[in-house]
Amino acid sequence: MDKQNKRIVLVTGATGGLGTAMCKELYKDGYHVVGNYHTKEKAEAWLKTMKAEGFDIQLFHGDVSDFDSAGAMIKKIEAEIGPIDTLVNNAGITRDGRLINMKKEDWYAVINTNLNSVFNCSRNVLDGMIERKFGRIINISSVNGQRGQFGQTNYSAAKAGMHGFTKSLAMEVAKYGITVNTISPGYIGTDMVMAVPEKVLAQIVAQVPMGRLGGTHEVAHLVSFLASEETSFITGANYSINGGQHVY
Predict the structure, then answer these.
(1) How big is the CA angle at 123 (ends 61 and 177), to the nearest 5 degrees?
(2) Would residue 17 count as lying in a domain?
(3) How many domains does the chain have?
(4) How many helices (H) and strands (E) does the chain have?
(5) Exposure of 178 in the CB half-sphere (CA atoms within 13 A)
(6) How far apart are CA 95 and CA 8, in angstroms?
(7) CB–CB of 162/184 below 8 Å?
(8) Could you report the per-residue pLDDT of 19-73, keeping only the tens digit for each?
(9) Which of 76, 124, 149, 150 is most exposed, with the fewest beta carbons within 10 Å of its own?
(10) What is the pLDDT of residue 66?
(11) Residue 88 has what pLDDT?
């Protein structure tokens, strides 16, 4: 299929472990994939690796925690590449600590990057999606937004807020052919998780009935599924992918 005819997907936080897997899976499934990055050095290394592996994915700089920066990035993408059909709100950070010890900077950094970014990016793609009567917005939340986690009041609040956003926006835009869904991964075998001490990792795996960490490719497959035109009747949903760690 000619590249101009492919659906364009923007993945925020593309250079992280989950973001990379999503970009690869979407690319293999025929989408025109565009990634967002924040750190130039990491982006340059990432692009080199992707090219060596045969993935033609472009990156655009933008601070998704800032409304104007996110808007400028999206305008640049749509001017140079084309209209964004699917937005994957994947950018996220952690600043863990008990609330009694948490600095206000750590609270606001997590809320701005993990939750306000969802508004910043969604708001800036929505007019075009409504005009074209098609769109997919996929928000990457977390099992800890469903069940809570000691030392993560900021992160859990942001991730729980994502799904409230999903449900309400899904109702608002359903009539325009736009779906809005959340994915809530459990513990996934990213570089960050794999870097924890072996004893801690064993304790994490012991909590998972499946007896293993999830694969980044498994989350990426779910993202690609929700991005497809065949999922037009799925909206306002939250997909848990946690190996049975949290069921309800």
Answers:
(1) 115
(2) yes
(3) 1
(4) 10, 7
(5) 27
(6) 32
(7) no
(8) 999 999 999 999 999 999 998 999 999 999 999 999 999 999 999 999 999 999 9
(9) 150
(10) 97
(11) 98
246 occurs within a structural domain: no
Copy the structure tokens of residue 167. Answer: 């449900």
User: Residue 114's closest CA among 144, 87, 141, 137?
Assistant: 141
Of 27, 31, 37, 155, which residue is the catalytic one? Answer: 155
The parent domain of residue 81 ranges over 3-240
| Residue 155 known to be catalytic | yes
CATH number of the domain that residue 26 is part of: 3.40.50.720
Percentage of the chain with pLDDT > 70?
Answer: 98
CA angle 32-174-224, nearest 5°? 30
Which residue matches tokens 């325009």? 176
- The reply to whether 38 falls in a domain is yes
- 245 falls within a domain: no
What pLDDT score does 59 carry?
97
